[in-house]
Design brief:
two-stranded antiparallel ribbon; two-stranded antiparallel sheet; 1 helix; about 10% helix; about 30% strand; disordered C terminus
Length: about 80
């Protein structure tokens, strides 16, 4: 299977697939949510975790992007101990 970035095109980081099809194809579960910070600003969050992995979480890597960034280019990795 090609690297996921090879599927991107000028219109979508997912290429011809929907986001759901893309994540399922690569064994990833994606979710997003929002919360309101103490200053009243709504903050958008998104996470990706391996699908079907039932192992304890060892750590997390968080990437915070700037105002001109977009989440389709950001990777957040959750590290699991796989037995």
């Amino acid at each position: 299977m090609a690297h996921p970035v090879a599927e991107a095109d000028e219109k979508s980081p997912f290429g011809r697939l929907t986001a759901e099809e893309f994540y399922a194809r690569h064994g990833v579960v994606n979710s997003s949510s929002t919360f309101v910070n103490p200053r009243g600003l709504r903050i958008f969050t998104q996470r990706w975790v391996p699908a079907g992995v039932d192992a304890p979480l060892l750590g997390a890597i968080a990437v915070v992007h700037g105002f001109t960034g977009e989440l389709s280019r950001v990777i957040m990795a959750y590290v699991y101990e796989i037995k």
